[in-house]
Amino acid sequence: MAVEDRNITCTTQEKAGDSCCGIPLLGFVLCLAEMVDLVNRRLLEHHLKVAYLAFRFGEVLGFSERSLGDLLLGGLLHDIGAFSLWERLDALHFEFHNPHHHAFVAYLLLKDFAPFASLAEIVRYHHVPWEEGRGGTVPLESHVIHFADRVSITCSFRKDPLGEIREKEPFLRSFVPRLFHPEVFEAFRKLLSRDYVWFDLASPHLRRIVHDLIPSGRLCLNTEDFLRFCQVVAHLIDFRSAFTATHSAGVARTAHRLGELTGLPQSKHVLLFAAGLLHDLGKIAIPVEILEKPGPLTEKEMHIMKSHAYHTFMALSWIQGLRDVAFWASEHHERCNGRGYPFGRTEEELLFESRLLAVADVFVALSEDRPYRPALGPRRIREILENMASSKSLDVDIVGVLLDHFDEVRASCREVQEQSALEYAAFRQEIVRFAG
Ligand SMILES: [Fe+2]
Ligand SMILES: [Fe+2]
Ligand SMILES: [Fe+2]
């Protein structure tokens, strides 16, 4: 699939330049990659480095523009299936136990998004040793990402990147051809004399460097694909834990319906839906061990948990065209009385859409099981919403609209959550089948 054929729409004029007519996919994926790496300081920039190296190896190997795009995006997404902290840290060992599990999970998450079909296959095999994958179904791009990944964990690229990479070359060579494709290793050797590659990897500007490798106009999402991609992201956020498996879908549907019921213009309904899908984006940076903790969180764990709303803002506000969505999504824990987080904004400072997202989030959360309590019934949910409105925690008018249409909104939310639950069950089943 060519980059231009990814169902990603741009006008001819915009394709020729560097501007983007829709949502820039690369910027969005970059934010996701950085979020996944925020889970531990030892992993910072891992995805950036792998993407950068894979792209440079691909250039030397004469890959097409399409394959270079796949290498870049594949490098940025290759470990998104490693949900737990221990699994991410385990992958820092040069050869580690069961490396294919997280690669398969990433494949499952990406495969149903049509523009990522080939990318999903590449990510699926990114830990297959060359001697096991040669002549089989493993794409060459997977071998490139595999080697880029192992170079990334072998070198720190901190103090003397030129000296370090030359020093590590014999060690890496010792795994050719057992682990690494000989041609990929040759491409690496050619790059050893190109100092800028290794300076780039040590640069504080690596994000910008990676971002500029492909003109943003080439990888833009039209509205339809943007929403489909948001669904993929919502699964990535939600499927990390059974307790959150259907949350974003429920908030998206509820926010969309509340947008209609409160009379917001139709143009905003879709964006509210997207904000609902993305509101907990920052939870990708929270270790699953905290998300699933059965008892009360410690003070420190609570601080980490609260940071998710901040991370949501920092990621989305950087993406061109998503500034409004960034505010609405990241302010879902703000409270009208100023007692929310992370910004402590008051009713006057919060946009109506942000207050609406906050109501949707509370409503959906109360109707879901949590590690520390079961789902609440309709009467109790109504009571809590009324109390939160009267204490100026939630917007009185929006809560009023929700309570007036309670059964209908609840049924609509449940419908989409049931669908999501089925998708989650199928996802778990595939993983069990893979492991078995
Ligand atoms: Fe990996
Ligand atoms: Fe990795
Ligand atoms: Fe949240």
Automatic annotation (TrEMBL):
<protein>
    <submittedName>
        <fullName>HD domain-containing protein</fullName>
    </submittedName>
</protein>
<dbReference type="Pfam" id="PF13487">
    <property type="entry name" value="HD_5"/>
</dbReference>
<dbReference type="InterPro" id="IPR037522">
    <property type="entry name" value="HD_GYP_dom"/>
</dbReference>
<dbReference type="InterPro" id="IPR003607">
    <property type="entry name" value="HD/PDEase_dom"/>
</dbReference>
<dbReference type="InterPro" id="IPR006674">
    <property type="entry name" value="HD_domain"/>
</dbReference>
<dbReference type="Pfam" id="PF01966">
    <property type="entry name" value="HD"/>
</dbReference>
<feature type="domain" description="HD-GYP">
    <location>
        <begin position="222"/>
        <end position="418"/>
    </location>
</feature>
